[in-house]
Design a protein that fits this description.
- This protein has a two-stranded antiparallel ribbon with strand order 1-2.
- The two termini are 26 Å apart.
- It is elongated and about 60 Å long.
- It has one domain: Winged helix-like DNA-binding domain superfamily/Winged helix DNA-binding domain (Arc Repressor Mutant, subunit A, Orthogonal Bundle), CATH 1.10.10.
- It contains six helices and two strands.
- The longest helix is centred in the last third of the chain and has 17 residues.
- It is mainly alpha-helical.
């Protein structure tokens, strides 16, 4: 599945943060987006770890965008929260990685591989700024 709840919540959080002047804490974002706080906190930490968000400690702490909206691509966002590149299918991205060792004789693998490549390119070109338009 390409868009999981984690990816959806990450994108929604980025949209909200792009409209805020001050860092937002996970509790405030959780209430605003009606997302479970513990789940959202993990998502925000993953985004911060990958340099998409910056986190601030203290009484006025929270999260803010670390980059301009046109520098945040959706492939990076989704990869950060999923822990891997999002895949449309459970098919390997290379013949060598095929779990069934049948990629060389699989008639659908070349199609799925091309489709995944096109989706990856699309997501890498789609920015937060594009979504905000």
């Amino acid at each position: 599945m390409l868009i999981t709840k984690a990816s959806e919540y990450a994108i929604l959080s980025l949209i909200v943060l792009s409209n805020k002047q001050e860092p937002q804490d996970s509790e405030t974002l959780s209430r605003e987006l009606t997302i479970p706080k513990s789940f959202l906190a993990k998502i925000l930490q993953s985004l911060a770890k990958e340099g998409i968000l910056v986190s601030f400690r203290g009484a006025n702490g929270g999260f803010a965008l670390a980059k301009k909206t046109d520098e945040i691509d959706m492939l990076s966002v989704m990869s950060a929260v999923e822990g891997k590149t999002p895949a449309v299918f459970d098919c390997a991205t290379s013949i060598a990685d095929c779990p069934s060792n049948m990629a060389t004789v699989c008639s659908i693998w070349p199609f799925l591989n091309k489709l995944q490549g096109k989706i990856d390119r699309f997501l890498s070109e789609l920015t937060l700024a594009d979504i905000l338009e």
